[in-house]
Amino acid sequence: MPGSGDFMRFLTCHTKSFSLLIWRSYCQHVVPGIQGYNAGFNPTKRALDRADKEFDLIGPKASFQGSALKLEDAPRLKLPEVAFIGRTSVGKSSLINAILNRNKLVRTSKKPGHTRLINFFNINSKMYLVDLPGYGHVEGLGSKRGTEHFVKVAETYLKERAGKELRSVCLLIDGKVGVKKNDLIAFEMMGEFGGPFQVILTKMDKLPKPRHQEVIEAVYKIKEQFSLDNCFPHVFAVSSTEKTGLSELRYFISLNVGIKNSEKW
Ligand SMILES: Nc1nc2c(ncn2[C@@H]2O[C@H](COP(=O)(O)OP(=O)(O)OP(=O)(O)O)[C@@H](O)[C@H]2O)c(=O)[nH]1
Ligand SMILES: [Mg+2]
């Protein structure tokens, strides 16, 4: 991925450590008494039900706030943000719809490279879910130019928002396709970015159930190789089509943006 090394130059130590501080505090909420970062992620059924209820309430009120190519054009209203990145067609836009229980709030497409701008979705004035362009092949642009477009747009966004509005980044990996070269570079890029992020395996419905664990474990191994301390220990696995794995993600996002904390739930 060209230009990913630029992240280091952009990020000051200050924003990085501030960002990590926030992330560690989430970890404390999510996994009380966390030892290192290898502890499990086991929210109670009650907590997951609460998260689903919360999103049942806020989902219908979610609306498109605006698009930006450059951050000067981003919405002026500041809210905590959770962003979605990953290869083109990995299912970023579909996942935002699924989390919110909406069918058509975010536009999706079979053609890779459909999302070209930074799209802000205002979730009942509590947070923004931010849909970003993907890296990899883009219909009409090809892979090189598609990825260059991603780097240009995402780099500025991540750099500017780290340690400020951006509370965490969801790095999506296609569960059926597995980790590709571009995804490895994305891991590297996230290490340089330094802000909190978590890995989400998408399209799990395309994999036979007996293979789920194997694929999840393969991603854990890759995570270990990078040993990034800004990567949340748990790997999420979802299907936007079959609506599985969403409660955990809703719960995690609620903690990220501070809608609820685990003690109350
Ligand atoms: N089977 C299955 N298909 C999915 C799932 N999520 C998304 N898709 C399909 O994958 C295709 C791409 O989905 P998008 O949500 O548009 O992907 P994206 O990552 O936003 O893609 P770009 O905007 O092009 O970067 C669409 O045809 C979706 O219907 C899923 O969980 N299961
Ligand atoms: Mg999209």
UniProtKB/TrEMBL annotation:
Superkingdom field: Eukaryota
Keyword entries, A-Z: GTP-binding, Magnesium, Metal-binding, Nucleotide-binding
Residue intervals of the EngB-type G domain: 78-259
GO CC terms, sorted: mitochondrion
Keyword Transmembrane helix: no
Record field: transmembrane: none
Cofactor: Mg(2+)
UniProt cross-references to Gene3D superfamilies, sorted A to Z: P-loop containing nucleotide triphosphate hydrolases
GO MF: GTP binding; metal ion binding
Coiled coil: none
Entry keyword annotation includes Magnesium: yes
InterPro entries linked: EngB_GTPase, G_ENGB_dom, GTP-bd, GTP-bd_ribosome_bio_YsxC, P-loop_NTPase
Classification via NCBIfam families: GTPase_YsxC
Family as reported in the entry's similarity comment: Belongs to the TRAFAC class TrmE-Era-EngA-EngB-Septin-like GTPase superfamily. EngB GTPase family.
Protein name: GTP-binding protein 8
Annotated source species: Stylophora pistillata
Lineage: Eukaryota, Metazoa, Cnidaria, Anthozoa, Hexacorallia
Underlying gene: GTPBP8
